Amino acid sequence: MRNACKFILALGLPLLFSFSAAAEPGDKLRYLPVQDAGRVKPFDTFATETLEIIYGKKRYKADENAESVAAHWVVMTWMLSPESWVTRPLFEVKHFEVLKNLGLAKEKKYFTGDELFKSERFANVMQELTNKRESKEKLTPYFQALQRLENQFLIFREIASGRMLHVLPKKDSEDWYSVAELPIEMQPAFLEISKNVAQYLGAVAEKANSHPAGQVLDDAVLKFESEAQKYSPEKYTQVEKVKTEVLYNIIHPFRWAYIFYLLTVISLLFIWIRKSEKGMSLVWTFLSVGFILHTAGFVFRVYLAGRPPVSNMYETVIWASWGAILFSVILELTYKFKVLLLGGSLVGLCALVVADMAPAILDPSIQPLEAVLRSNYWLIIHVMTITISYAAFMLAFGLGDLGLIYFVIDEEKHRETIQKLTTGVYRAMQIGVAFLTPGIILGGIWADYSWGRFWGWDPKETWALIVLLGYIIVLHARLVGWLKNFGTLAAGVITFSLVMMAWYGVNFVLGAGLHSYGFGAGGIEYVSMFVLLHILFVIYAYLNHRMKKPTV
Amino acid sequence: MRFENKALQKFWRFSTSFQLGIPILIVLTILIATGTIIESRLDAYAARRYIYESWMMYVTMGLLIFNLTIVMVDRLPWQTKHYPFIFVHIGIITMILGGFVTQKFGIDGSVSVPIKGKNNFVSLPQTDLVVYATFDGDRYTKIFDREVDFFKSAPSERNPYQIQVRDNKIQVIDYVPYARLTKKIRATESAQAGASVRFQLMNANVKQVESITQIRKSKTAKFNFGPAQVFLGDVKRESADKNEIYLTPAADQQLRYTIFHKDQKNPYKTGAIKIGDVIATGWMGLELRLLDYLPRATEEWDVVRSEAPTPITTAALQIRRGSDTHWLVLNDILKIFSEAEAYLITYQNRRLDLGFPILLKTFKVSRYEGIQKAMAYESEVQVGTGDQIQDGLISMNEPLKYSGYTIYQASFQEDEVTHEPTASVFSVNFDPGRWIKYFGALILSTGIVWLFYQKRKRKIAL
């Protein structure tokens, strides 16, 4: 009973918190439906994504001590008074060479529009980019950075001119009217929103009571929506989905999920170190809440996108961390080792934190799918099986790391734990292989069905095969006794580098082949560092192991 | 299994052991990983040629099959506990063999069909070098037709590829896999060669330099300037629905011009024009200035070698005849004129006649709302001839099967300006190894499930 109470409390708290946040006057603006990048989304999502492109963050902060401002206010004021923004450091430019060629200070990160776009140097680098594009060669990181700069420039200009914010469905086409092209009868309603945004922000700036102004603004937004509804009744019906999306943005379920995973890890560590027999119910409660929130976030995305969310790096990381938790729970329920659960929740925690922290590399926005991927059936059975196998390998990696730490600490004293972890690593690898093999074969069948060949040595499929070969080598080597406990744990860590290559490397480093829909850029230095550090750690653990036991 | 012969026994032990198996797997892994890096640096074709279809790959695969087989034979007579692993091994061998059958006997090509048009030729990756010759300038006879593969062994000045025709004067002396092309026009002495002009079209809004070169003597060539058309050759007006300017070679120094206006039968103006002259067309203030005129010229490619392929590079050969060299671009024609005869040389992807046409009735692209990104595309086609005609719809993930071939929607071509689709691209494939591979996959999957079930009985990994 007590557990049940805890459970409800834990689940209820974040929801309660988020609903209270949503009820703030002036927030209705966030729910305004807009058409952007191939779908209808709430203004909230549009503004956040746009601010991330230009500023690199979800909220704007004028300086260290200033209070941060939410994206929807920032983007709205770009349109209402762009001139007040050109002197603010708003544009994030990080690439060293780009800064050098623009003649800007390297230690600064944010620049004003005047600093960036008014110089002749800007025209020069843009010409450089145009020339590179005409040669049709692959864009190097420098040119990708220039491309982002061009994007930042265009997006700011288009928003300032009112041409980018599409708020009203056209009667005779799929497109929506932008604010700049609104039909004359709809203009007063939008003007009302603009006016009230200014008044509301004025009230906030003066630290006066902003609630009445917020209320008036809300009314203006609702009035515009109802007029839009009258103007184009059928096409304005997606509003419900848009509301859910704002809720998803506010709740941010994956963040709550990793907070609960963190609690799981902390409480589990406490029990583990104290060798306590009690407290497992608390651990399971935290983990269940985290897992439910994780699943809920996933369900949100399925509903919002209308497809299984496994189509880019961000979505697969979320999905794989979910799988890693699930597998560790299954192994824990089978073996009751506790340490397997610890490894699993650590892996899930880390993956979710990484996904949340790097929006520039792992893009969390919901994007329209490439034509060839528009088959939910195949997406589910091929992509989900492959990525769930990565989840198992990720778990093997986490457990392997833990095991090596025990080896380094004192392998004699922790012999039993090491044996348990080795079992976990071995089983996780087996689970991975059992999903990866059919995943690859199903991929072959899909490729045969839709491209006309079962196997084409495409880099993505080749690397999936390399991962499989890697783990098969390890499993066989263990089977014939070439790998003992240390070797198996080390293999769990090292072989995961192959997964990193297949998962991240093919899309972000090689950038070639037919699986081009998942391509991205950035983060290569972090990933290489991650892989390198682990290899060094394995070498250190090995040397340590050899010194202690010179005979083995 | 045991052998009396010591050496044989030792060899057998080695073959069945992981001392052979694991190195094979490691070599295979390294090979195919290298392949993906080559694909990233160059392209899929290069990766295939250098790695996946190389002797190294065949040897590794051969050794793998050898190892997988011998490990099974070694376990004879088999017991129930052996079956899962035997299934897995047989499954893998079957899939590899299926892949080999596909590679050797399958067909995988592409067909581009214009909207409302038809095509019955599939373009295959193999390349052929074909030479036609003429002595009277009209009738061409094929005098050479060979499959050539220069990708891994390119010809050079020192080691040219000899085209065996007549006096053996034609040689291939260079191969550029990734060539960036520019056009150049050069004067020639050959009596067979056509004329070439370079001119400027200008009015208050437009200022544009263009050139037209006749493929051969007296063969009219055209430049389409939207509402107006410029011709180089004899006046031959087919309809009166366009503004037309004819430039007709008259002598080595000058041409005659004839200007027609839309919907008027008789010429608006005629006269003579030489280099530097400007004529008013009487239409939208447009003037034509003749910048250059060569009475005998050929249009040729100039090639810049690129390190890696891009969407605008293509393969090109350098052909030498006597002291002249010319560039021949993949799927293009090179004309070489001499005093007595002329040659047409083509270097092209092999075209396979399907035996039936693919007719594209309609092609639809649906796009995501408000943007240009394609959401789906589908082609309404008719395939076959006579009473074997079949109608069908081909879309992404939904191919059409006809007479042993499977036709897939691969992509489409669109107008650069309007983004309206102009043609649909299909990949056409015939795969005799398909069922072998599927059968292998089935055996393999069964084996894995079985293996997994068997392993579950043990509690701790040992």
Briefly say what this structure is:
The complex is a heterodimer of chains A (552) and B (462). Chain A is mainly alpha-helical and 552 residues long.
List the helices and strands and how they pair.
The complex is a heterodimer of chains A (552) and B (462).
Chain A: H1 2-22, E1 33-36, E2 39-42, H2 43-55, E3 59-60, E4 69-70, H3 71-80, E5 91-92, H4 96-102, E6 110-111, H5 113-117, H6 120-134, H7 141-160, E7 166-169, E8 176-178, H8 187-205, H9 211-231, H10 239-251, H11 253-274, H12 280-305, H13 313-335, H14 339-357, H15 376-410, H16 415-450, H17 459-479, H18 485-494, H19 496-510, H20 524-548
Antiparallel strand pairs in A: 1-2, 3-4, 5-6, 7-8
Chain B: H1 6-16, H2 18-41, H3 44-52, H4 55-74, H5 83-105, E1 107-114, E2 118-134, E3 141-148, E4 161-162, E5 170-187, E6 194-202, E7 207-213, E8 221-225, E9 228-232, E10 243-249, E11 254-260, E12 269-274, E13 278-280, E14 287-305, E15 314-321, E16 324-329, E17 332-337, E18 342-367, E19 374-383, E20 390-395, E21 400-402, E22 405-414, E23 421-430, H6 434-455
Parallel strand pairs in B: 9-10
Antiparallel strand pairs in B: 1-23, 2-3, 2-18, 4-5, 5-14, 5-15, 6-7, 6-14, 8-9, 10-11, 11-12, 13-14, 15-16, 17-18, 18-19, 19-20, 21-22, 22-23
Helix pairs in contact in B: 2-3, 2-4, 4-5, 5-6
